[in-house]
Amino acid sequence: MTALTQSVPARNERRYQFSWADAGPFLALAALLALGFLVNPDFLSATNLSNVITRSAYVAIIAVGATFVISSGGLDLSVGSMVAFIAGITIMFMNMMAPSLGLWAIPAGMAIAVVTGLLCGLANGVIVTVGKIEPFIATLGTMGIFRALITYMTNGGTIPIDRSLREAYRPVYFGTLGGIPIPILISAIVAVLGAFVLYKTKYGRKCAAVGANEDVARYSGISVIKTRTVAYVIQGVCVAVAAICYVPRLGAATPTTGQLWELQVITAVVIGGTALRGGKGRIWGTIAGAVILELIANLMVLSDFVSEYLVAAVQGVIIIIAMLVQRFSK
Amino acid sequence: MTALTQSVPARNERRYQFSWADAGPFLALAALLALGFLVNPDFLSATNLSNVITRSAYVAIIAVGATFVISSGGLDLSVGSMVAFIAGITIMFMNMMAPSLGLWAIPAGMAIAVVTGLLCGLANGVIVTVGKIEPFIATLGTMGIFRALITYMTNGGTIPIDRSLREAYRPVYFGTLGGIPIPILISAIVAVLGAFVLYKTKYGRKCAAVGANEDVARYSGISVIKTRTVAYVIQGVCVAVAAICYVPRLGAATPTTGQLWELQVITAVVIGGTALRGGKGRIWGTIAGAVILELIANLMVLSDFVSEYLVAAVQGVIIIIAMLVQRFSK
Amino acid sequence: MSIAARIDTDRFAAPGDALPVAPVLRAEGVSKQYGTVTVLSDVTLDILPGEIHAVIGENGAGKSTFMRLLSGYIEPTQGALSMAGQRVRFTRPDQAQAAGIALVHQEILLAEALTVTDNLFLGRELTKGGMVDDARMRRLAAAKLAELGCEVPATALVHDISLADRQMVQIARALLDEHRVVIFDEPTAVLTGGEIERLLAIIFELKARGIAVLYISHRLDEVQRLADKVTVLRDGKMVGTYPGHTLSQIDMARLMVGRELAALYPQKQATRTNQPMLSVLNAMVPGFVRDVSFSAHKGEILGFAGMIGAGRTELFEGILGLRPGTATVELNGAPIRIRSQREALDAGIAYLTEDRKGKGLLLQERLGPNLTLSALASFHPGLVVKRAREAEALGQAVSTYDIRLKSLGARAGQLSGGNQQKLLLAKVLLTDPSVVIIDEPTRGIDIANKAQIYGFIQDLVRQGKACIVISSEMQELVGICDRIIVMREGRISGEVSGETMTESQIALLATSERAHVAQGGMK
Amino acid sequence: DKKVVAVSIPAADHGWTAGVVYHAQAAAKEINAAFPDVEVVVKTSPSAADQVSALEDLSASRKLDALVILPYTSEELTQPVKAIKDMGTFITVVDRGLTDASIQDLYLAGDNIAVGANTAKFMIDKLGGKGDIVVLRGIPTVIDDERIKGFQDTIKGTGIKVLDIQYAHWNSDEAFKLMQDYLAKYPHIDAVWANDDDMLLGVLEAVKQSGRTDIKLALGGNGMKDIVKKVIDGDSVTPVETPYPPSMIKTAIYMTVANLIGQAPVRGHVKLDAPLITQANAKEYYFPDSPF
Ligand SMILES: Nc1ncnc2c1ncn2[C@@H]1O[C@H](COP(=O)(O)OP(=O)(O)OP(=O)(O)O)[C@@H](O)[C@H]1O
Ligand SMILES: Nc1ncnc2c1ncn2[C@@H]1O[C@H](COP(=O)(O)OP(=O)(O)OP(=O)(O)O)[C@@H](O)[C@H]1O
Ligand SMILES: [Mg+2]
Ligand SMILES: [Mg+2]
């Protein structure tokens, strides 16, 4: 009997093997940069690239959260209006506190932003998991709700941040640290944290398991409800961080803030290689996806090829081609 | 051992059993009608109801197509801008033909609309199936493309239909046949045809099979690519029919025509009981879903409870509640 | 190797003379490689009409791969198929089907969202005047299922029916059309006595009609009863083809593993105590189980026997919070509440599902994460997943449970059925439970591994755990259990131990009064 | 019996429409309080199709004595408004005229062409007849189209060259990004026209960030309070503003009600001018309490 149990030494795991599928988004990014340079050499100028990457920071930060939601088998269409709602709440709170707290109103407001984001995410999560409603519909509903709330709060207009806070808060978007724009740093931190949680922690495992096969997760003692709800909460916090970076950019929240960001976010996640049906998330691909989207928009303006009317068409075509290239480079 | 193999007569098939899940959307519809009557007795007036149902016709017609796409495991976000694009093409063609063909330009334009819809659907289908791109992203891309094309065609403005055709074409939206508004008749015909194809033909079976489990379908000799592509083509034709009804209503196509209809369409389908992950389509539920959405909007206008700014929030809440009621009535 | 070689030449030298009948299907020198891994190499086989040809081999020997190859699911990397002397090449399963080759899969391959009838006729719906003829298809489906002794309504959704019923649906699907070759890949793995008998009868019927049958099973008694010829595969290579009736089960086992085998069932150990560990009172699972009470003792192997649909799986899923149900549960005398699998695992009760593909393993995931999924909390204290520990545990599990794999980087779905089962066992035991409930522990496990698993189960009770084994193989229960509870129609119909613990007694308890109880109506 | 005045306007989807909603509701509140015999009902719609639906809903349930409408588009709303007129309702149209002018009992129009043209004239003057400029467009609709047309027709033949023109959807964010890209693309820009003040906010922020000094003018339009404030403060980059006051809806509602209760028979066309707001007259256009 003992002879039977002798196992053949299994081949060594090749842990750092190169995968074309994983490299796809980065290759697409490189191709786009090359194309950009051909179209307009200014494209690769430091200012332009830094502008573009800084701009992509919001979508990137939110998309890190979306990677959790999507890999756990969910979807969140409400993130765009959630940004607006959180930005509105934050500005109102900061303005209210400015007289008494002075500049301390800014960190206080940031804390409120995070708490609001957390609660919004929790609401989404609970409706989806406990309410057992298709994520698409549930978050389409909350999308309408958040959008309506910010419209209500602003009376359809604008909530500008108090003049006394504006200058102090500005650097969060416009400042640099060691030459790197702050939003880029923040999104890098969010991505590193996201990658750590998704790839290195037990929660990340649970998230992927729930997305891959709910039954297996349940039979393995993983709470599907808790895991997926936490993914939505992470999404909410990421949205809050994005809102915190967003507010100083234009210093105001309006009912149009964050419109259609949800589509950009989902596109970034999918271009990054995460499957919409769940089970596998790719944080770094997501970041590449967010940058790709912003680069395409930038390229449209910097090139003179297309009529202003057709910009959206060319963007659509480029995204489809990028996805095709990724598919068939496998 | 023979005693063991004696088979007990199979459990009686309860074929026409009442299913709460199937009845859900219709119950929600009834509840909404009752609520409407309480809020404003005019709500149930024949004129109002006929108006509302007529209006829901577009979404209903498109949603019949979407039921095919979704039950085959796909998704189509491009339908809203496809309506605009087809309406634009149709009007341009009719106007061009009006001098030579006279009123015959109208049926000729309708034929062009159907052909255009078919080709648009085919394009979506091929990108999704042959290109193997997530439907969400693929149709988001074509959504941008169609929207840009209509903007281009209108130069950012409006394409109105020729005056000489307007009166002759008007009845397609405003006319009645035996007291029933034409759009209601058309959507009923589309629904009956849709239900027939989905429930009574081999193609309908294939569609459900492909949506339920691609592998099983493939092993059963069903071409996943063909089946899903045909679903997108059906969707395109439905969009064309909706566009044909739409043109006489407003008499023009603009770059904002059909904006966000895709979300309404998907919501109608899901409220109707079709699961977004595919496998089972419910045409009649979809129709109920489309009417529900339009009723909610109508109710918002007829009631004076909510601030203008909060209309979207209340709609979101009602949709979520409707879904919850459906879930827990099971 | 040498033993097998000796057996080959000494006792079962192939006849070698010309075949009396032309083969209906012939595989010539077929091989299959995945990347650099060779799964099947140079297999040549003739399948004659009216012949039952069994293919046996250890887990991972390449049986399913060979069958998939014959029926168009995969293409060989080398070699070719011919039918009645004509070269054929299948790139899709429906082409093989059209040529008259049907495969009943080892895994269940059905669309869950569709009805039984829809699944039976998928891709070949009957039509009348352009419309699908649902009424007729339902009638035919019901008739076919009744013929197989399967009671599920033809209109039920596959999602709602049990694993065994799904298997019957799958068999019905294969038998619906007339075929020239029917391939069964472990059809009886999820079936119990009655269904198996019914199926064997049908296979003999096929044979009588001149249809060729390829039959794969780890149940060597079945092979012995059925097979005209037996082909043995080992590590993807042919060991040989032998006349069926001359081969004893011991011979078959020897040929499969290539060396001498110890006894299948281990000597029973007297580890049983009178100290109840898990007590269940008045368990109710709506629609499946009514008023079941029992207790499992420390150091005891408690069996649960019953016919298909007796509700054993549902009983334990209900107790463990995996489906709605109520029960009063005591662990070591202390009442506990279990509302989810997590609470059960925390309390030290582990359940190994019978549906390893659907509920047991993440097929797309690598082995390490699969192994530790249930034990995340205890195995990785703190926040972070310890990869090195995980790799180490995997290495250990692979050697302890003799999981055969080509690479540690493989995904769970790439393991053969039997090895998946062993991985699942390793996964569940990693939580270090005190009560282990194993549903169908040896479903799809070859004879050598079975013996090993029985050994593992004995190790468990020797460590003072209680072990509950649900099995549809009565012989296995009798072989290893200290006591067996028999269920029928959602209730306990009796208990056997010691002298009374015989297959016939269990069969009696599992089936008698069946009709009477059914009248009472569960649902 | 109460006289019913229905007000149908676009939903608040950016600053200017928000202003319209604000003023419409303010008017409704004031009138409902002041005249017990009159009921003003305000309904907003997010698209042309929804506006048609809203008209149907409003007229299906009760008889309307008057309708004040700011149509999404002229073409699409002409027939539906005519249907209401045929029921004997007094029709007031604001901002965008219907294609059949005979439907309108009262027409109160802003002048979008003038908004574009006046801005262009000021720019030509200020830049001395030549210079390189970039333009941001809004959402592809009639308003946007008319403004751009007014602007382009005016600069025709002068030395003003439009380097680039792109859509930014009347959205500050998109305008910010677009302006960043313009700045990256063109090393020298003399002036920017944003066609709407929401977008101008984004433009100014981008210019400020770039630290560039070549941009002599950055103009918007619509009379947003923040921008009017700049004019008051004598900002050198934004020294003027073109009003397109959302309060025109309020004026229209008051005129309609006055007509209804017989105080003054008001009919005909009123065209609001689009005079330049300069530091001299800016105070008249400054409403710090309005959301816009
Ligand atoms: N897609 C694949 N890629 C790589 N290896 C594979 C793949 N599919 C199967 N294998 C390997 O091929 C070998 C044979 O598998 P197969 O399923 O044919 O075994 P089997 O004889 O049917 O075993 P069992 O009795 O356990 O079902 C196994 O080692 C398995 O890991
Ligand atoms: N949704 C359902 N509706 C009606 N009957 C069902 C449904 N699901 C399962 N059943 C029936 O319930 C009974 C119990 O199921 P099951 O066969 O899993 O029990 P078991 O004793 O665990 O058998 P097994 O030997 O397969 O483990 C069976 O008769 C099955 O057909
Ligand atoms: Mg196998
Ligand atoms: Mg069972």
From TrEMBL, chains A, B:
Transmembrane regions: 20-40, 52-70, 77-98, 104-128, 135-153, 173-199, 230-252, 283-303, 309-325
Top-rank taxon: Bacteria
Cellular-component GO terms for this entry: plasma membrane
One function term, GO molecular function aspect: transmembrane transporter activity
Major subcellular site: membrane
Keyword Nuclease found: no
InterPro entries: ABC_BtuC-like, ABC_transp_permease
Keyword annotations from UniProtKB, A to Z: Cell membrane, Membrane, Transmembrane, Transmembrane helix
Any Pfam family: BPD_transp_2
Topological relation to the membrane, as annotated: Multi-pass membrane protein
Localization terms from the record: Cell membrane
PANTHER family named in the record: ABC TRANSPORTER PERMEASE PROTEIN YPHD-RELATED-RELATED, RIBOSE IMPORT PERMEASE PROTEIN RBSC
Protein name: Inner-membrane translocator
Species of provenance: Mesorhizobium plurifarium
TrEMBL record, chain C:
Gene3D superfamilies, per database record: P-loop containing nucleotide triphosphate hydrolases
Keyword annotations from UniProtKB, A to Z: ATP-binding, Cell membrane, Hydrolase, Membrane, Nucleotide-binding, Repeat, Sugar transport, Translocase, Transport
MF-aspect GO terms: ATP binding; ATP hydrolysis activity
The EC number(s) this enzyme carries: 3.6.3.17
Lineage: Bacteria, Pseudomonadati, Pseudomonadota, Alphaproteobacteria, Hyphomicrobiales
Gene: rbsA
Transmembrane segments: none
Cellular compartment(s): Cell membrane
Family, similarity comment: Belongs to the ABC transporter superfamily.
ABC transporter domain boundaries: 25-260, 271-514
Any single GO CC term annotated in Swiss-Prot or TrEMBL for this entry: plasma membrane
Protein name from the UniProt record: Ribose import ATP-binding protein RbsA 3
Class of this enzyme: hydrolase
Topological relation to the membrane, as annotated: Peripheral membrane protein
